[in-house]
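Figure 3 (text version): C-alpha cells given as input.
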C-alpha cells in the first residue's frame, strides 16, 4: 500500500522525462524511450499513491487535472513512439511543461463532497483531461508544421481524437451533473467554458471543408484553440489552489 509520502516518485519521474527529451534531441532515441517508460511508470506510482491520501483508496485524487494531465500526455508520447512516429519526442515538450506545473501545484486533495464520491466523476475527468492532452500535443505539432519541421498532419489526428474524447466527457459529465446536482447543465463558468471549448473544436473540424482554410491556417487555429483551453483550465486550477486540502 502506498502512503502520502510518495512525492519522491513525482520528482524522479520529472527527471526521467527531462532525460528522455535530452536523449531524444541527442538522437539517442532508444535510450530516450527507455527513460520515458521509466518516468511513466514512476509517475503512475505517484498517482496511485495520491489515491491513498484519504486513508482509503479513492480515485478522485488520481484524476485531478494538474496531476492526471502529464500522465495522459505520457500515454500519447508512448503510443507515438511504439507506433514508430518519427517525431514522437515532440510530445515531450508539453509533457515537461505540465509536469513542471504539477511539481509546484498544491499538494493534498480537496475533501470530496458526497456528490463527488461516484464513478461518474472518474468517467468525466479521464476523457476530459485526455482530450486536453490531445489538444496541447496537437498545438505543439501544429507549431512544428508551421516551422517547416513536419510535413504530416499529425496535429489534425490528435485534435480529432481530442474532440471525440471531449464529446464523451460532455455526456458523462451531464450524467454526473444530473445525479449530483439535479440537472444536466448549469449556467456557470465551468459548464459555459466546457461548452465553448467543444464549439471551438467542432468549428475546427469544419474548417477543412471551407475554401481557403489550408493546412497552415488550420495549424494556427489549432494553436489558438489550445491557448484558449490553457487559459480556461488553468484559471480554474489556480483558483482551486486556494481551497483547503488534506494530506499530501
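Below: residues designed for each position.
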Amino acid at each position: 500500500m502506498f502512503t502520502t509520502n510518495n512525492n519522491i516518485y513525482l520528482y524522479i519521474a520529472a527527471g526521467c522525462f527531462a532525460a528522455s527529451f535530452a536523449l531524444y534531441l541527442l538522437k539517442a532515441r532508444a535510450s530516450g524511450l527507455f527513460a520515458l517508460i521509466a518516468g511513466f511508470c514512476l509517475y503512475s506510482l505517484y498517482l496511485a499513491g495520491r489515491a491513498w491520501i484519504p486513508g482509503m483508496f479513492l480515485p478522485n485524487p488520481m484524476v485531478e487535472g494538474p496531476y492526471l494531465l502529464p500522465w495522459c500526455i505520457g500515454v500519447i508520447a508512448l503510443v507515438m513512439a511504439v507506433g514508430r512516429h518519427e517525431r514522437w519526442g515532440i510530445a515531450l515538450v508539453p509533457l515537461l511543461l505540465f509536469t513542471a506545473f504539477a511539481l509546484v501545484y498544491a499538494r493534498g486533495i480537496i475533501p470530496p463532497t458526497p456528490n463527488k464520491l461516484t464513478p461518474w466523476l472518474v468517467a468525466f475527468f479521464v476523457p476530459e483531461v485526455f482530450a486536453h492532452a490531445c489538444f496541447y500535443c496537437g498545438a505543439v505539432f501544429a507549431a512544428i508544421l508551421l516551422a517547416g519541421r513536419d510535413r504530416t498532419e499529425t496535429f489534425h489526428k490528435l485534435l480529432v481524437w481530442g474532440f471525440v474524447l471531449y464529446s464523451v466527457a460532455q455526456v458523462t459529465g451531464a450524467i454526473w451533473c444530473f445525479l449530483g446536482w439535479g440537472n444536466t447543465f448549469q449556467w456557470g463558468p465551468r459548464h459555459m467554458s466546457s461548452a465553448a471549448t467543444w464549439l471551438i473544436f467542432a468549428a475546427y473540424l469544419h474548417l477543412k471543408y471551407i475554401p481557403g482554410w489550408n493546412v497552415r491556417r488550420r495549424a494556427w487555429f489549432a494553436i489558438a484553440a489550445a491557448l484558449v483551453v490553457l487559459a480556461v483550465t488553468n484559471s480554474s486550477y489556480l483558483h482551486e489552489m486556494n481551497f483547503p486540502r488534506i494530506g499530501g
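DSSP finds eight helices and no strands in the chain.
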